[in-house]
Amino acid sequence: MAVAALEQEILSMRKRRQLYSLMGILLVAAVLVSGYSKSNEMNSGGFLQGLSKFFDYPGEIVVEAWQAGPAFFGLIIQYVPAMLETLNIAGVATLLGGAMAVILAMASTRNVDSWGPLIPVVRRMMDIMRAFPELIIALFLIFVLGSSPVPAMIAVAFHTAGALGKLFSEVNENIDRKPIEGLSACGASWLQRIRFAVMPQVAPNYLSYFLLRLEINVRASAILGFVGAGGIGQELRRTIGWGKGAGDETAAIFVLLFLTIMLIDQVSSFLRGKLVGASRAH
């Protein structure tokens, strides 16, 4: 009887859970439908009416790029300096953010004998640094420092330090402690233990995450240029703002962005594969 009563109670709990889940789904669906209806009423044109014109602007860009003929390739070359500026922003930001991330990771990991009271403080700092998107930080810095690549670089580096610091600290937690204990028994200082026992183990994974973050930062730097932080994004904002007549320039920027990011992705994936393979071999 006790077993039967227990089975009945489990079935009852399961049914209640399914009922609550269904009610939650219906509530979310009702909120989405009502929100869509309200926003559709506030728009100057309805969503369905605008959907039919969705491909009009991309079509104009393709047509103008085709009409440009061989001059289109000259436009691509014209925007290479702006693309290089975006790559410089991403590269410097990744270097600065990566250096900060190493310090934060070492200070926030118990497995490398960091000072105990400092660990939760540094971890909360990294949480805060990851919580704010690069775009929000860049908009604030542009207001303070003016439109230039510097706000974009600081914003990307700030977010990169928090994101990479979290990844690096997880790598630190999985290292072998025997080299650390051996050096500690010999009287080595904390910095010596980090240099000779920790870094040789974590360096391949650090570099792998660093290259992955560089890919992300190139995209982020291009987006930040759209809000006035310089680089290829600023040129894209200008050409789109001009509307009809600048479609060939817009297409040239899109093609240049695509080719650059694809090249970086391929090179980074190749290098990360080599690094991970080398770390597994050891």
How many angstroms does the end-to-end distance come to? 60 Å
Report the major sheet: none
Structural class: mainly alpha
Helix coverage percent: over 70%
Name the beta content range. Answer: under 5%
Key phrases:
282 residues; 0% strand; flat; mainly alpha; 12 helices; MetI-like fold
What does this structure look like?
This protein is mostly helical. Helix content is 85%, strand content 0%. It is built from twelve helices and no strands. α6 (118-131) crosses α8. It starts with a helix and ends with a helix. The model has no long low-confidence stretch (mean pLDDT 83). Residues 83-268 form the ABC transmembrane type-1 domain. Belongs to the binding-protein-dependent transport system permease family. It comes from Roseibium album. It is a multi-pass membrane protein.
Blueprint (SSEs and pairs):
Elements: H1 2-42, H2 47-51, H3 56-68, H4 71-78, H5 80-107, H6 118-131, H7 134-145, H8 149-173, H9 178-185, H10 190-229, H11 232-242, H12 247-281
Domain ABC transmembrane type-1: 83-268
Keywords: Cell membrane, Membrane, Transmembrane, Transmembrane helix, Transport
Membrane topology: Multi-pass membrane protein
Q: In summary, what is this structure?
A:
The protein is an all-alpha fold and 282 residues long.
